[in-house]
Amino acid sequence: MGIVILNYNDALSTLKILKQIRNYSVIDHIVIVDNLSPDGSFQQLKSMAGDKVDVIQSDKNGGYSYGNNYGAFYLIDKYMVDILVIANPDVEFSEAFLIRIVQDMINWNAQAASGYMDMPADPSFARNRKINSYWQELLLCTVLLKQFVHVHNDYVLPNHGIIQVEWIPGSLFAIDAAVYKRIHGLDDRVFLYYEEQILGKKFLELGYRMIIDTDISYLHNHSVSIDKSIKRYGKTAQLFKSRYYFYANYERINFMQRFLMKVLIYYGLAARKILYNFFS
Question: Where in the sequence is the domain holding 42, given as residue range(s)?
Answer without folding.
Answer: 2-124+155-228
